[in-house]
Amino acid sequence: MNINNPTADQDTHFFGDVCKNFDHAAQFTQHDAGLLDQIKSCNSVYRFRFPIRKGNGFEVIDAWRVEHSHHQSPTKGGIRYSEMVNEDEVMALAALMTYKCAIVNVPFGGAKGGIKINPKNYTVSELENITRRYTVELIKKNFIGPSIDVPAPDYGSGEREMSWIADTYATMNPGQLDALGAVTGKPIALHGIAGRREATGRGVAIAIRECVGVAEDMQKIGLTTGLSGKKIIVQGLGNVGYYSAKFLSEFGALIVGLCEFEGAIYNEDGLDVEAVFQHRKATGSILGYAGAKKEFKNTMDGLEQPCDILVPAALENQITAQNVGSIKAKIIAEGANGPTSPEAEAAFYKNGGMIIPDMYANAGGVTVSYFEWLKNLSHVAFGRINRRFEENSNLNLVNMVEGITGVALTPMQRTTIVKGASELELVNSGLEDTMIRSYHEIREILKSNPKVETLRNAAMVGAINKIAVSYMNLGVWP
Ligand code: NAD
């Protein structure tokens, strides 16, 4: 792999695709070619192998951690547990993290980790051994720490794995006050933060709501404004897909299709997301759900059913030159990283659609991970210090207004106005603010530069400009 010129390699696809998008957007910026090269390249690629005990013998596990950019510290990015993980994929995902953080103004560089296993083939105790040993390998090479590199969940990992990482890191660094800030996505009982689990999906739903709220853009692609009644298909019923579908339903959209790796289901009148989720939990499959009007053994057929919006939220490379012509949606909102190939994107726009790109659409997770990291460094939950003070001030104000006007509020009105914000409310409000502002910042770049054709190009132009400023301010030493 030629790290400095990945697009020249034959065997790279995903990282090559990310670099293609970068190169395209870089044309619309004014930066020195060397600086652009520095931004694009992966700074550190750590590939390692370690043994675990399996049965009566050993098994050697392949793993990676890639730190793409150090223009901000720490670097940040999830750890993927999948037998399909490879170096190219981890590099691509690390690069996307850099651009994603820049787009939503989260002050981190990008990183990503990968462990090449299918978690379903291991016992819980083996998974714990793998996770702890992976963490120790990172510690040995200084690839983890609250001010160095902070992992989080990704495909195949969740709160349980983050707990093991936090405990291993804290154990190996006794007395380090900020040790729990070395990883995010932890359970709340282990200094995680309210709202992190659902943050990526909530962010995807807000991103779509913002996009369909712009009348001018909807007119261009032949959709009405607003989410109410919009027909949506979601691929993947994991963390991102499940919560995206749940919040989109809550915002008034109809989830008409759900696709998992065992197949897909469809009902043009809408599916009950929670009921499908429970059905899958009980039977191991979304197929056989009584509320579906159509079933498909091949999950890819599910993507091609009639809808307004398609949310791929499983894995990369799902919409390609081969199937893009059969996609009926007008909007693709990328919950997953890299689900649309560059060729498919060009064809989709040519057919009159638009794409809300991964590096913005799924940035809700890293945004709330940033809040969790801040909470861990400050050692206090959001809202704890000021909530009662806020409530007392609100109460004084309500009493004063009632006194002046002579109008008494109902108990319900009083409670709503007086109540101070909980951690969850503050997190959700910070997340919503970030997603709304970032969407319009990207759209503004698109509108103000006629040569920038897509939201992805616009998002990348914005990211490159912000990262370039950081590198220029840092200077080069020695
Ligand atoms: P997850 O492991 O929780 O869920 C993934 C789901 O996709 C699983 O239910 C799996 O069965 C399903 N799936 C796998 N292959 C499929 C296929 N071919 N068709 C349909 N479904 C399939 O993973 P996740 O955390 O939800 O991550 C999904 C995507 O979102 C990944 O690309 C990840 O990088 C990205 N992402 C995740 C987060 C996060 O906070 N978890 C943040 C940003 C981006």
TrEMBL record:
Gene3D superfamilies: Leucine Dehydrogenase, chain A, domain 1 (3.40.50.10860), NAD(P)-binding Rossmann-like Domain (3.40.50.720). One of its GO terms (molecular function) is nucleotide binding. The keyword NAD applies. NAD(+) binds at T200, N239. Residues 193-475 form the Glutamate/phenylalanine/leucine/valine/L-tryptophan dehydrogenase C-terminal domain. The record marks D154 as: Important for catalysis. The active site is at K112. Keywords: NAD, Nucleotide-binding, Oxidoreductase. GO terms for biological process: L-glutamate catabolic process. PROSITE patterns: GLFV_DEHYDROGENASE (PS00074). SUPFAM superfamilies: Aminoacid dehydrogenase-like, N-terminal domain, NAD(P)-binding Rossmann-fold domains. The keyword Nucleotide-binding applies. Substrate binds at K76, K100, S369. PANTHER family: GLUTAMATE DEHYDROGENASE, GLUTAMATE DEHYDROGENASE 1, MITOCHONDRIAL. Belongs to the Glu/Leu/Phe/Val dehydrogenases family. This is Glutamate dehydrogenase.
